[in-house]
Amino acid sequence: MTDSYVQAVNSGFTKTLAKKLGLPRPAVLRRHRAGDPLTVGPVLVLGGTPGVHDDADRVASALLDTFGLDVRQNADDQIRWGAIVVVLTQAERPQDVSGTVMALSASLRGLAPNGRVVTISRAPDDGDSPELAATREGVEGFLRSVAKELRNGATGNGVQLTDDAPVDSASSLATLRFFLSARSAFVDGQVLRVGGSTAADRGTTSASGEPSSGAGVAASPAAADPSITTDRPLQGKVAVVTGAARGIGAEVARTLARDGAKVVVVDVPAAGEQLAKIANEIGGTALQLDVTADDAGARILEHARARHGGLDVLVHNAGILRDKLLANMSADKWDAVVAVNLAAQLRITEYLLGANGFSGEPRIVSLASTSGIAGNRGQANYAFSKAGVIGHTRAFARLLGGPAGPGGTANAVAPGFIETEMTASIPFVTREVARRVSSLQQGGQPVDVAEAIAFLASPGAAGVNGQVLRVCGQSLVGR
Ligand code: NAD
Protein backbone atom coordinates (compact mmCIF):
# COMPACT_ATOMS: atom_id res chain seq x y z
CA MET A 1 0.00 0.00 0.00
CA THR A 2 1.40 3.42 -0.88
CA ASP A 3 0.52 7.02 -0.20
CA SER A 4 0.67 8.49 -3.71
CA TYR A 5 0.24 12.06 -2.37
CA VAL A 6 3.68 11.91 -0.68
CA GLN A 7 5.26 10.80 -3.95
CA ALA A 8 3.41 13.44 -5.98
CA VAL A 9 4.38 16.44 -3.82
CA ASN A 10 8.03 15.38 -3.86
CA SER A 11 8.56 15.00 -7.58
CA GLY A 12 8.28 16.88 -10.89
CA PHE A 13 5.46 19.21 -11.89
CA THR A 14 3.19 18.24 -8.99
CA LYS A 15 5.91 19.27 -6.53
CA THR A 16 6.02 22.77 -8.04
CA LEU A 17 2.23 22.93 -8.08
CA ALA A 18 1.95 21.86 -4.44
CA LYS A 19 4.52 24.54 -3.50
CA LYS A 20 2.57 27.24 -5.37
CA LEU A 21 -0.74 26.20 -3.83
CA GLY A 22 0.78 26.02 -0.35
CA LEU A 23 -0.35 22.41 0.10
CA PRO A 24 1.19 20.30 2.87
CA ARG A 25 4.34 18.61 1.57
CA PRO A 26 5.15 15.59 3.72
CA ALA A 27 8.81 14.58 3.40
CA VAL A 28 10.08 11.32 1.98
CA LEU A 29 11.29 9.63 5.16
CA ARG A 30 14.76 8.13 5.38
CA ARG A 31 14.39 4.42 6.21
CA HIS A 32 17.03 1.92 7.23
CA ARG A 33 19.16 0.35 4.50
CA ALA A 34 22.06 -1.94 5.29
CA GLY A 35 25.35 -0.07 5.09
CA ASP A 36 23.89 3.43 5.44
CA PRO A 37 25.40 5.64 8.18
CA LEU A 38 23.54 5.82 11.49
CA THR A 39 22.86 9.56 11.17
CA VAL A 40 22.77 11.94 8.18
CA GLY A 41 25.53 14.14 9.60
CA PRO A 42 27.58 14.94 12.74
CA VAL A 43 25.94 14.74 16.15
CA LEU A 44 25.84 17.73 18.49
CA VAL A 45 25.63 16.81 22.18
CA LEU A 46 24.28 19.61 24.35
CA GLY A 47 24.13 19.93 28.14
CA GLY A 48 26.69 19.69 30.90
CA THR A 49 29.61 21.91 31.74
CA PRO A 50 32.60 22.32 29.40
CA GLY A 51 35.67 20.48 30.69
CA VAL A 52 33.70 18.45 33.26
CA HIS A 53 33.21 14.70 32.79
CA ASP A 54 29.47 14.84 33.42
CA ASP A 55 26.54 13.00 31.81
CA ALA A 56 26.70 14.98 28.56
CA ASP A 57 30.37 14.17 28.27
CA ARG A 58 29.66 10.48 28.93
CA VAL A 59 27.02 10.44 26.19
CA ALA A 60 29.40 12.15 23.77
CA SER A 61 32.17 9.62 24.59
CA ALA A 62 29.78 6.71 24.19
CA LEU A 63 28.48 7.93 20.81
CA LEU A 64 32.05 8.21 19.63
CA ASP A 65 33.43 4.98 21.17
CA THR A 66 30.44 2.72 20.68
CA PHE A 67 28.91 3.93 17.43
CA GLY A 68 31.89 5.67 15.83
CA LEU A 69 29.88 8.84 15.22
CA ASP A 70 31.32 12.27 14.45
CA VAL A 71 30.41 13.94 17.76
CA ARG A 72 30.75 17.62 18.69
CA GLN A 73 29.98 19.43 21.91
CA ASN A 74 30.20 22.94 20.54
CA ALA A 75 27.68 24.64 18.25
CA ASP A 76 28.87 25.50 14.75
CA ASP A 77 26.76 27.46 12.24
CA GLN A 78 28.55 25.86 9.29
CA ILE A 79 27.46 22.30 10.14
CA ARG A 80 24.22 20.56 9.09
CA TRP A 81 23.59 18.38 12.12
CA GLY A 82 22.44 14.81 11.62
CA ALA A 83 21.23 14.85 15.19
CA ILE A 84 21.18 16.98 18.31
CA VAL A 85 21.25 15.08 21.61
CA VAL A 86 20.08 17.11 24.57
CA VAL A 87 21.30 15.74 27.90
CA LEU A 88 19.22 16.97 30.85
CA THR A 89 19.75 14.13 33.32
CA GLN A 90 21.39 16.40 35.87
CA ALA A 91 18.67 19.07 35.87
CA GLU A 92 17.08 19.26 39.32
CA ARG A 93 15.28 22.61 39.22
CA PRO A 94 13.28 24.18 36.36
CA GLN A 95 15.92 26.91 35.97
CA ASP A 96 18.64 24.27 35.37
CA VAL A 97 17.15 23.53 31.94
CA SER A 98 17.19 26.93 30.29
CA GLY A 99 20.87 27.14 29.24
CA THR A 100 20.72 23.82 27.38
CA VAL A 101 17.34 24.60 25.84
CA MET A 102 18.63 27.94 24.54
CA ALA A 103 21.65 26.16 23.04
CA LEU A 104 19.22 23.83 21.23
CA SER A 105 17.19 26.82 20.09
CA ALA A 106 20.32 28.37 18.54
CA SER A 107 21.28 25.16 16.70
CA LEU A 108 17.88 23.91 15.57
CA ARG A 109 17.96 25.67 12.18
CA GLY A 110 21.11 23.68 11.40
CA LEU A 111 19.29 20.34 11.71
CA ALA A 112 19.47 18.39 8.43
CA PRO A 113 16.37 16.94 6.70
CA ASN A 114 15.52 13.62 8.39
CA GLY A 115 17.65 14.79 11.34
CA ARG A 116 16.98 13.83 14.94
CA VAL A 117 16.52 15.62 18.23
CA VAL A 118 16.78 13.26 21.21
CA THR A 119 16.45 14.34 24.83
CA ILE A 120 17.98 12.22 27.59
CA SER A 121 16.52 12.96 30.98
CA ARG A 122 15.55 11.30 34.25
CA ALA A 123 12.15 9.61 34.61
CA PRO A 124 9.80 11.11 37.19
CA ASP A 125 9.76 8.94 40.29
CA ASP A 126 7.30 8.65 43.20
CA GLY A 127 10.01 9.82 45.60
CA ASP A 128 10.76 13.06 43.71
CA SER A 129 10.40 16.41 45.48
CA PRO A 130 7.83 18.71 43.82
CA GLU A 131 10.67 20.73 42.28
CA LEU A 132 12.42 17.67 40.86
CA ALA A 133 9.13 16.18 39.63
CA ALA A 134 8.27 19.45 37.90
CA THR A 135 11.65 19.56 36.17
CA ARG A 136 11.49 15.96 34.98
CA GLU A 137 7.88 16.16 33.72
CA GLY A 138 8.72 19.49 32.11
CA VAL A 139 11.32 17.89 29.86
CA GLU A 140 8.68 15.51 28.48
CA GLY A 141 6.27 18.32 27.58
CA PHE A 142 9.14 20.29 26.05
CA LEU A 143 10.24 17.34 23.89
CA ARG A 144 6.73 16.69 22.58
CA SER A 145 6.43 20.35 21.56
CA VAL A 146 9.82 20.49 19.89
CA ALA A 147 8.90 17.39 17.87
CA LYS A 148 5.85 19.23 16.54
CA GLU A 149 8.05 22.10 15.35
CA LEU A 150 10.46 19.95 13.33
CA ARG A 151 10.09 19.71 9.53
CA ASN A 152 11.53 17.82 6.54
CA GLY A 153 11.21 14.36 8.06
CA ALA A 154 13.11 15.28 11.23
CA THR A 155 11.83 13.75 14.48
CA GLY A 156 12.12 14.38 18.20
CA ASN A 157 12.06 11.63 20.82
CA GLY A 158 13.14 11.20 24.43
CA VAL A 159 15.06 8.64 26.48
CA GLN A 160 13.86 8.78 30.08
CA LEU A 161 16.22 6.99 32.45
CA THR A 162 15.16 5.68 35.83
CA ASP A 163 17.45 6.75 38.68
CA ASP A 164 19.29 3.39 38.72
CA ALA A 165 20.24 3.55 35.02
CA PRO A 166 23.54 5.24 34.10
CA VAL A 167 23.35 7.55 31.13
CA ASP A 168 25.71 5.30 29.16
CA SER A 169 24.20 1.92 30.09
CA ALA A 170 23.72 -0.61 27.30
CA SER A 171 19.94 -0.08 27.26
CA SER A 172 20.25 3.70 27.33
CA LEU A 173 22.62 3.65 24.36
CA ALA A 174 20.59 1.05 22.46
CA THR A 175 17.48 3.23 22.86
CA LEU A 176 19.41 6.34 21.85
CA ARG A 177 20.73 4.50 18.79
CA PHE A 178 17.20 3.46 17.78
CA PHE A 179 15.94 7.05 18.01
CA LEU A 180 18.97 8.42 16.11
CA SER A 181 18.67 5.85 13.35
CA ALA A 182 16.49 5.61 10.25
CA ARG A 183 14.80 2.62 11.92
CA SER A 184 12.67 5.07 13.92
CA ALA A 185 11.55 7.02 10.80
CA PHE A 186 7.86 7.11 11.84
CA VAL A 187 8.41 7.33 15.63
CA ASP A 188 7.99 10.95 16.63
CA GLY A 189 7.25 12.81 19.87
CA GLN A 190 7.72 9.66 21.95
CA VAL A 191 9.42 9.10 25.27
CA LEU A 192 10.73 5.67 26.24
CA ARG A 193 11.49 4.88 29.86
CA VAL A 194 14.68 2.89 30.33
CA GLY A 195 15.56 1.13 33.58
CA GLY A 196 18.81 -0.30 34.88
CA SER A 197 18.29 -3.85 33.69
CA THR A 198 21.55 -5.70 34.02
CA ALA A 199 24.37 -5.65 36.55
CA ALA A 200 26.43 -3.65 34.08
CA ASP A 201 23.55 -1.21 33.56
CA ARG A 202 23.00 -0.66 37.26
CA GLY A 203 26.49 -0.68 38.68
CA THR A 204 28.37 1.34 36.05
CA THR A 205 30.97 -1.40 35.88
CA SER A 206 33.67 -1.09 33.28
CA ALA A 207 34.00 -3.58 30.45
CA SER A 208 36.55 -5.47 32.58
CA GLY A 209 34.05 -5.81 35.41
CA GLU A 210 35.88 -3.31 37.64
CA PRO A 211 33.74 -0.54 39.10
CA SER A 212 34.37 2.66 37.17
CA SER A 213 35.87 5.57 39.03
CA GLY A 214 33.47 8.21 37.72
CA ALA A 215 35.16 11.41 36.57
CA GLY A 216 37.86 10.96 33.98
CA VAL A 217 36.66 7.55 32.74
CA ALA A 218 36.25 7.91 29.02
CA ALA A 219 35.03 4.49 27.87
CA SER A 220 31.34 3.80 28.51
CA PRO A 221 30.35 0.56 30.29
CA ALA A 222 28.32 -0.39 27.24
CA ALA A 223 31.14 0.19 24.78
CA ALA A 224 32.15 -3.46 24.90
CA ASP A 225 28.60 -4.81 24.56
CA PRO A 226 28.37 -6.09 20.98
CA SER A 227 24.60 -6.63 21.19
CA ILE A 228 23.95 -2.90 20.76
CA THR A 229 26.10 -2.41 17.68
CA THR A 230 25.64 -5.61 15.71
CA ASP A 231 23.36 -5.73 12.67
CA ARG A 232 22.10 -9.16 13.74
CA PRO A 233 21.11 -8.74 17.40
CA LEU A 234 18.64 -11.64 17.19
CA GLN A 235 21.13 -14.18 15.90
CA GLY A 236 20.39 -17.55 17.54
CA LYS A 237 16.93 -16.46 18.76
CA VAL A 238 13.59 -18.02 17.82
CA ALA A 239 10.67 -15.66 17.29
CA VAL A 240 6.96 -16.31 16.77
CA VAL A 241 4.86 -13.71 14.94
CA THR A 242 1.07 -14.11 14.79
CA GLY A 243 -0.98 -12.71 11.90
CA ALA A 244 2.11 -12.84 9.71
CA ALA A 245 0.59 -13.71 6.32
CA ARG A 246 0.34 -10.07 5.30
CA GLY A 247 0.55 -6.42 6.38
CA ILE A 248 2.45 -5.48 9.52
CA GLY A 249 2.92 -9.11 10.65
CA ALA A 250 4.63 -10.13 7.39
CA GLU A 251 7.00 -7.17 7.69
CA VAL A 252 7.73 -7.96 11.34
CA ALA A 253 8.66 -11.50 10.30
CA ARG A 254 10.98 -10.18 7.56
CA THR A 255 12.63 -7.68 9.91
CA LEU A 256 13.21 -10.16 12.75
CA ALA A 257 14.69 -12.60 10.20
CA ARG A 258 16.91 -9.81 8.82
CA ASP A 259 18.12 -9.24 12.39
CA GLY A 260 19.11 -12.90 12.68
CA ALA A 261 16.10 -14.67 14.23
CA LYS A 262 14.55 -17.94 13.10
CA VAL A 263 10.91 -16.97 12.68
CA VAL A 264 7.72 -19.01 13.03
CA VAL A 265 4.95 -17.25 11.12
CA VAL A 266 1.41 -17.94 12.34
CA ASP A 267 -1.89 -17.19 10.60
CA VAL A 268 -5.33 -18.69 9.98
CA PRO A 269 -5.56 -21.70 7.62
CA ALA A 270 -7.44 -19.54 5.06
CA ALA A 271 -4.23 -17.48 4.65
CA GLY A 272 -2.08 -20.63 4.41
CA GLU A 273 -0.74 -20.08 0.90
CA GLN A 274 0.44 -16.53 1.59
CA LEU A 275 1.83 -17.66 4.94
CA ALA A 276 3.92 -20.37 3.29
CA LYS A 277 5.33 -17.78 0.85
CA ILE A 278 6.47 -15.56 3.73
CA ALA A 279 8.00 -18.52 5.58
CA ASN A 280 9.93 -19.55 2.45
CA GLU A 281 11.06 -16.00 1.75
CA ILE A 282 12.64 -15.60 5.20
CA GLY A 283 13.82 -19.17 5.78
CA GLY A 284 11.36 -19.65 8.63
CA THR A 285 8.48 -22.06 9.23
CA ALA A 286 4.71 -21.64 8.94
CA LEU A 287 2.12 -22.65 11.51
CA GLN A 288 -1.51 -22.51 10.39
CA LEU A 289 -3.42 -21.66 13.52
CA ASP A 290 -6.37 -19.57 14.66
CA VAL A 291 -4.96 -17.73 17.69
CA THR A 292 -8.34 -17.94 19.42
CA ALA A 293 -8.09 -21.75 19.65
CA ASP A 294 -7.96 -23.04 23.24
CA ASP A 295 -4.72 -24.88 22.57
CA ALA A 296 -3.02 -22.07 20.59
CA GLY A 297 -0.26 -21.57 23.20
CA ALA A 298 0.51 -25.28 23.35
CA ARG A 299 0.65 -25.59 19.56
CA ILE A 300 2.96 -22.58 19.23
CA LEU A 301 5.33 -23.99 21.83
CA GLU A 302 5.26 -27.48 20.36
CA HIS A 303 6.06 -26.11 16.88
CA ALA A 304 8.82 -23.75 18.06
CA ARG A 305 10.53 -26.48 20.09
CA ALA A 306 10.17 -29.22 17.48
CA ARG A 307 11.30 -27.12 14.51
CA HIS A 308 13.74 -24.65 16.09
CA GLY A 309 14.64 -25.98 19.54
CA GLY A 310 12.99 -23.26 21.64
CA LEU A 311 11.27 -19.90 21.84
CA ASP A 312 12.69 -16.47 22.77
CA VAL A 313 10.50 -13.75 21.23
CA LEU A 314 6.72 -13.62 20.95
CA VAL A 315 4.99 -10.96 18.82
CA HIS A 316 1.20 -10.77 19.25
CA ASN A 317 0.26 -9.10 15.97
CA ALA A 318 -2.92 -10.87 14.73
CA GLY A 319 -5.81 -8.44 14.87
CA ILE A 320 -9.13 -7.65 13.27
CA LEU A 321 -11.50 -4.69 12.86
CA ARG A 322 -15.31 -4.89 13.10
CA ASP A 323 -16.09 -1.16 13.23
CA LYS A 324 -19.61 -0.02 14.22
CA LEU A 325 -20.99 2.84 16.28
CA LEU A 326 -21.80 1.39 19.68
CA ALA A 327 -25.53 2.00 19.09
CA ASN A 328 -25.31 -0.37 16.10
CA MET A 329 -22.88 -2.87 17.63
CA SER A 330 -23.82 -6.56 17.60
CA ALA A 331 -22.57 -8.99 20.23
CA ASP A 332 -20.88 -10.95 17.41
CA LYS A 333 -18.79 -7.97 16.34
CA TRP A 334 -17.84 -7.05 19.90
CA ASP A 335 -16.93 -10.62 20.85
CA ALA A 336 -14.93 -11.37 17.69
CA VAL A 337 -12.68 -8.34 18.16
CA VAL A 338 -12.12 -9.00 21.86
CA ALA A 339 -11.42 -12.69 21.20
CA VAL A 340 -8.73 -12.13 18.52
CA ASN A 341 -7.15 -8.85 19.64
CA LEU A 342 -7.12 -9.36 23.40
CA ALA A 343 -8.26 -12.69 24.86
CA ALA A 344 -6.00 -14.72 22.54
CA GLN A 345 -2.93 -12.69 23.54
CA LEU A 346 -3.72 -13.16 27.23
CA ARG A 347 -4.33 -16.90 26.92
CA ILE A 348 -1.22 -17.58 24.83
CA THR A 349 1.14 -15.53 27.03
CA GLU A 350 -0.25 -17.06 30.23
CA TYR A 351 0.17 -20.54 28.81
CA LEU A 352 3.75 -19.94 27.66
CA LEU A 353 4.83 -18.37 30.95
CA GLY A 354 3.06 -21.06 32.98
CA ALA A 355 4.71 -23.82 30.94
CA ASN A 356 8.17 -22.19 31.19
CA GLY A 357 7.98 -22.07 27.42
CA PHE A 358 10.64 -19.43 26.83
CA SER A 359 14.23 -20.58 26.50
CA GLY A 360 15.78 -17.60 28.26
CA GLU A 361 14.34 -14.27 29.39
CA PRO A 362 11.06 -13.80 27.46
CA ARG A 363 10.64 -10.93 25.02
CA ILE A 364 6.96 -10.23 24.42
CA VAL A 365 5.76 -7.45 22.12
CA SER A 366 2.03 -6.89 21.58
CA LEU A 367 0.23 -4.78 19.02
CA ALA A 368 -1.90 -2.09 20.61
CA SER A 369 -3.16 0.95 18.68
CA THR A 370 -3.50 4.71 19.11
CA SER A 371 -7.27 3.99 19.07
CA GLY A 372 -6.74 2.22 22.39
CA ILE A 373 -5.09 5.34 23.82
CA ALA A 374 -7.23 8.15 22.42
CA GLY A 375 -10.46 6.29 21.55
CA ASN A 376 -11.98 6.43 18.09
CA ARG A 377 -15.56 6.92 16.91
CA GLY A 378 -16.96 3.66 15.61
CA GLN A 379 -14.24 1.60 17.27
CA ALA A 380 -15.50 1.00 20.82
CA ASN A 381 -14.82 -2.75 20.50
CA TYR A 382 -11.37 -2.25 18.93
CA ALA A 383 -10.40 0.47 21.44
CA PHE A 384 -11.44 -1.79 24.34
CA SER A 385 -9.28 -4.58 22.96
CA LYS A 386 -6.26 -2.37 22.30
CA ALA A 387 -6.45 -0.53 25.64
CA GLY A 388 -6.71 -4.01 27.17
CA VAL A 389 -3.46 -4.94 25.42
CA ILE A 390 -1.78 -1.98 27.13
CA GLY A 391 -3.20 -3.18 30.45
CA HIS A 392 -1.93 -6.75 30.18
CA THR A 393 1.43 -5.54 28.83
CA ARG A 394 2.03 -3.48 31.97
CA ALA A 395 0.85 -6.35 34.21
CA PHE A 396 3.04 -8.95 32.46
CA ALA A 397 5.97 -6.50 32.60
CA ARG A 398 5.60 -6.21 36.40
CA LEU A 399 5.40 -9.98 36.65
CA LEU A 400 8.49 -10.59 34.52
CA GLY A 401 10.56 -7.80 36.05
CA GLY A 402 9.39 -8.27 39.66
CA PRO A 403 11.66 -9.63 42.39
CA ALA A 404 10.39 -13.20 41.93
CA GLY A 405 9.98 -12.84 38.16
CA PRO A 406 11.97 -14.70 35.53
CA GLY A 407 13.29 -11.51 33.92
CA GLY A 408 12.53 -10.52 30.36
CA THR A 409 10.27 -7.78 29.05
CA ALA A 410 6.72 -7.17 27.86
CA ASN A 411 6.10 -4.07 25.78
CA ALA A 412 3.43 -2.82 23.41
CA VAL A 413 3.69 -0.99 20.12
CA ALA A 414 0.80 1.31 19.26
CA PRO A 415 0.71 2.12 15.56
CA GLY A 416 -1.17 5.13 14.28
CA PHE A 417 -2.17 5.11 10.62
CA ILE A 418 -0.14 2.47 8.77
CA GLU A 419 -0.58 1.72 5.04
CA THR A 420 -1.93 -1.88 4.99
CA GLU A 421 -4.90 -3.79 3.60
CA MET A 422 -6.61 -3.16 6.93
CA THR A 423 -6.45 0.63 6.53
CA ALA A 424 -7.09 0.45 2.75
CA SER A 425 -10.63 -0.62 3.68
CA ILE A 426 -11.27 2.70 5.51
CA PRO A 427 -13.48 5.15 3.50
CA PHE A 428 -11.39 7.54 1.33
CA VAL A 429 -12.01 10.84 3.16
CA THR A 430 -11.48 9.35 6.64
CA ARG A 431 -8.34 7.65 5.36
CA GLU A 432 -6.93 10.85 3.85
CA VAL A 433 -7.59 12.82 7.07
CA ALA A 434 -6.03 10.06 9.20
CA ARG A 435 -2.88 10.19 7.05
CA ARG A 436 -2.33 13.93 7.35
CA VAL A 437 -3.11 14.66 11.02
CA SER A 438 0.34 13.89 12.31
CA SER A 439 3.58 15.84 12.63
CA LEU A 440 4.99 13.86 9.67
CA GLN A 441 1.77 14.44 7.65
CA GLN A 442 1.66 10.92 6.24
CA GLY A 443 0.82 7.34 7.08
CA GLY A 444 3.55 4.97 8.17
CA GLN A 445 4.72 1.81 6.42
CA PRO A 446 4.52 -1.68 7.96
CA VAL A 447 8.32 -1.68 8.19
CA ASP A 448 8.16 1.28 10.60
CA VAL A 449 6.18 -0.81 13.09
CA ALA A 450 8.43 -3.80 12.40
CA GLU A 451 11.59 -1.81 13.21
CA ALA A 452 10.12 -0.71 16.56
CA ILE A 453 9.23 -4.31 17.40
CA ALA A 454 12.67 -5.55 16.35
CA PHE A 455 14.25 -2.97 18.65
CA LEU A 456 12.07 -4.00 21.61
CA ALA A 457 12.91 -7.67 20.95
CA SER A 458 16.66 -7.00 20.80
CA PRO A 459 19.03 -7.70 23.73
CA GLY A 460 19.92 -4.00 23.92
CA ALA A 461 16.34 -3.16 24.94
CA ALA A 462 16.59 -5.24 28.14
CA GLY A 463 15.96 -2.12 30.22
CA VAL A 464 12.77 -1.20 28.35
CA ASN A 465 9.87 -2.94 30.09
CA GLY A 466 6.14 -2.23 30.34
CA GLN A 467 6.32 0.57 27.78
CA VAL A 468 3.90 1.56 25.04
CA LEU A 469 5.82 2.84 22.04
CA ARG A 470 3.66 4.73 19.57
CA VAL A 471 4.62 4.46 15.92
CA CYS A 472 2.36 7.17 14.62
CA GLY A 473 4.39 10.08 13.22
CA GLN A 474 3.20 12.00 16.32
CA SER A 475 -0.44 11.72 15.36
CA LEU A 476 -2.51 14.54 16.75
CA VAL A 477 -4.89 11.88 18.09
CA GLY A 478 -3.94 11.20 21.72
CA ARG A 479 -0.52 11.81 23.21
P1 NAD B 1 -4.06 -7.02 8.43
O1 NAD B 1 -5.54 -7.19 8.45
O2 NAD B 1 -3.43 -6.57 7.17
O3 NAD B 1 -3.33 -8.36 8.93
C1 NAD B 1 -3.77 -9.04 10.08
C2 NAD B 1 -3.38 -10.49 9.97
O4 NAD B 1 -3.87 -11.16 11.14
C3 NAD B 1 -4.01 -11.18 8.75
O5 NAD B 1 -3.04 -11.91 8.05
C4 NAD B 1 -5.05 -12.08 9.37
O6 NAD B 1 -5.31 -13.28 8.62
C5 NAD B 1 -4.43 -12.40 10.72
N1 NAD B 1 -5.44 -12.86 11.68
C6 NAD B 1 -6.65 -12.33 11.91
N2 NAD B 1 -7.32 -13.09 12.80
C7 NAD B 1 -6.50 -14.12 13.13
C8 NAD B 1 -6.64 -15.24 13.98
N3 NAD B 1 -7.76 -15.46 14.68
N4 NAD B 1 -5.61 -16.10 14.08
C9 NAD B 1 -4.46 -15.92 13.38
N5 NAD B 1 -4.29 -14.87 12.54
C10 NAD B 1 -5.30 -13.98 12.42
O7 NAD B 1 -3.75 -6.01 9.63
P2 NAD B 1 -2.50 -5.03 9.87
O8 NAD B 1 -2.90 -3.68 9.42
O9 NAD B 1 -1.27 -5.64 9.35
O10 NAD B 1 -2.49 -5.00 11.46
C11 NAD B 1 -1.65 -5.85 12.23
C12 NAD B 1 -1.84 -5.48 13.70
O11 NAD B 1 -1.55 -4.09 13.90
C13 NAD B 1 -3.25 -5.69 14.22
O12 NAD B 1 -3.21 -6.13 15.57
C14 NAD B 1 -3.84 -4.29 14.16
O13 NAD B 1 -4.91 -4.12 15.07
C15 NAD B 1 -2.64 -3.46 14.54
N6 NAD B 1 -2.73 -2.06 14.08
C16 NAD B 1 -2.74 -1.74 12.75
C17 NAD B 1 -2.83 -0.41 12.36
C18 NAD B 1 -2.82 0.03 10.91
O14 NAD B 1 -2.91 1.23 10.66
N7 NAD B 1 -2.71 -0.87 9.95
C19 NAD B 1 -2.96 0.58 13.34
C20 NAD B 1 -2.94 0.22 14.67
C21 NAD B 1 -2.83 -1.10 15.03
What is the average of the pLDDT values? 91
Indicate the CATH class of the largest domain: Alpha Beta
Which secondary-structure class do the elements indicate?
alpha/beta
Order of helices and strands: HHEHEEHEHEHEHEHEHEHEHEHHEHHHE
Molecular shape:
globular
The small-molecule ligands in this entry are:
nicotinamide-adenine-dinucleotide
Largest sheet: 7 strands, parallel
Helix content: 25-40%
What does this entry look like structurally?
This protein is an alpha/beta fold. It folds into two domains: 25-228, NAD(P)-binding Rossmann-like Domain (Rossmann fold), CATH 3.40.50.720; 238-471, Rossmann fold, CATH 3.40.50.720. It contains 16 helices and 13 strands. The strands form two sheets. The protein has a seven-stranded parallel sheet with strand order 9-8-7-10-11-12-13, sandwiched between helices. α3 links the parallel β1 and β2 (71-72). The radius of gyration is 22 Å and the shape is globular.
Condensed summary:
By secondary structure, this protein is of the alpha/beta class. It has helices at 4-8, 12-21, 55-67, 98-107, 130-149, 170-180, 199-203, 247-258, 272-282, 296-308, 331-354, 370-374, 380-401, 421-424, 428-436, 446-457; strands at 43-46, 71-72, 81-87, 111-122, 155-161, 191-194, 238-242, 262-267, 285-288, 313-316, 363-367, 409-415, 468-471. The protein is globular and about 60 Å long.
From the structure above, extract its key features.
39% helix, alpha/beta, binds nicotinamide-adenine-dinucleotide, 6-stranded parallel beta sheet, Rossmann fold, 479 residues
